[in-house]
Write a structure and sequence with these properties.
This protein is mainly alpha-helical. Helix content is about 60%, strand content about 5%. The chain has 2 domains: about 110 residues, no CATH class; about 55 residues, no CATH class. It contains 7 helices and 2 strands; from the N terminus they run αααααββαα. The radius of gyration is 17 Å and the shape is globular.
Length: about 160
């Protein structure tokens, strides 16, 4: 029997993020429970003070982004902002996505148009703040709104064709 060798926090966070990204297809009770367990583990690591590097914060943000509550999205945004501050360029799109998810959860228009939502049985971007420019979206690594609209239309067509 091999001895138990604990995972390094950075490796564990990367694994948790990879698992989260691979586990987003179904709405099963088991998938939801696995997501909760991953979020709890991220919070444990945060409370231990071992989320340190840009990559650690980025991976923690990814796990929290797939939460169910505004607090999860806000924590994802906080982790992603810290990752960006530490030099992770890829964290900017997580900031935008978490911000949009938080706004939608509160019944408000999203800023960047990162979230596809179902309205009356069809995929749409939902309400998007018209004061946010494509230049601002670009600063967060988000495509222009017209590109996002095309993507949601493709998703709707794929669903209708299947």
């Amino acid at each position: 029997m091999e001895p138990f060798i604990p995972e390094e926090p950075s490796d564990e966070l990367e694994r948790l993020a990879d698992e989260q990204l691979s586990d987003t297809e179904s709405e099963s009770v088991e998938r939801i429970q696995r997501g909760k367990q991953r979020r709890m583990r991220v919070l444990d690591l945060y409370n231990q003070g071992v989320i340190l590097s840009a990559d650690d914060h980025y991976h923690a943000a990814l796990v929290m982004l797939y939460g169910e509550e505004v607090a999860h999205f806000e924590l994802a945004r906080t982790f992603a902002r810290r990752a960006a501050t530490l030099g992770s360029a890829r964290a900017w799109s997580i900031i935008a996505a978490a911000w949009d998810r938080s706004l939608i959860q509160c019944g408000r228009a999203q800023r960047f148009g990162t979230q596809f939502v179902r309205e009356q049985g069809r995929w749409t971007l939902g309400r998007v703040d018209p004061s946010v420019t494509d230049a601002e979206r670009a600063m967060y690594g988000v495509p222009p709104l017209w590109v996002q609209r095309q993507a949601v239309e493709r998703l709707q067509r794929r669903e209708e064709d299947s």
